[in-house]
Amino acid sequence: MNKSIYVSIIAVSLIFGLIISFQYRSNNDSTAGKTTDRYQELTIEKKQVETDIAQLEEEIGDLTVKIETARQGRTEADDAVISELDKTKLYAGLIPVTGPGVNITMKIDQASQAGMGFYNIRDEDLLKVINDLRGAGAEAISINDQRILATSEVRKAGNHININLVRLSPPYSIKAIGNPGMLESSLEIKGGLVEILAVNGITVDVQQSDQVLVPAYTGMLRFDYAKHVQRG
Q1: Does domain 96-214 have CATH number 3.30.70.1880?
Q2: Which of 40, 56, 92, 142 has its CA 20 to 30 A from that of 83?
């Protein structure tokens, strides 16, 4: 080969080498650019995720506060309903109550009835006791553990007296809660029920007490005709 051919081969080789070198650099620059762009994209996505997490944590905190507030409100509402229900039961005589008042015992004094006609304790005598006690401010009354309600019947049935459909016989134990002094005075006032019954051989013993227990009404409550009035 002559010299010109060697020169041509060398020149072609140099050119080919430069092309390869340029191509390699171009590929490296492109890869580096892509890597940098991807890193920037991931950094932006990470910041966005962190922002979303922070917002979600804030919403969780707000919802937790709202749930706790709702729970407290529901508890307060439940307590208010229970309190109102207990108050209604108290007024209706459906729960036992205790407080200051009087213990009364009514019984037949057979010795004092000797020589005169036999006088038994009548339903109207018990009704008079109940009315006198209520007039003196009694808040709860029972007779032989039968709670006296507005619907309680007190009526004679043979030799017995029915109260709340329960047959009762003397002696009668009457309990009343209220001002002890006023309750006692309402019965023992001069010319009052105690004196009147004593004439007929009935003894009425009234004892004041700091703590009187009046039981709850245990019968059935039925309203066949009375209906709740709808508002509006």
Answers
A1: yes
A2: 142
| Antiparallel, parallel or unpaired: β 172-177 and 160-163 | unpaired
Residue 154 near residue 221 (C-beta atoms within 8 A): no
Rounding to the nearest 10 degrees, give the CA dihedral for residues 93, 96, 98, 103: 80
The ranges assigned to domains in the chain are 1-92, 96-214
Residues with Cβ within 8 Å of 163's Cβ and at least 6 positions away in sequence, in order, are: 126, 143, 144, 146, 148, 152, 153, 154
What's the pLDDT score for residue 65?
81
Tens digits of residue pLDDT in 27-58: 555 555 556 766 677 787 777 777 877 777 78
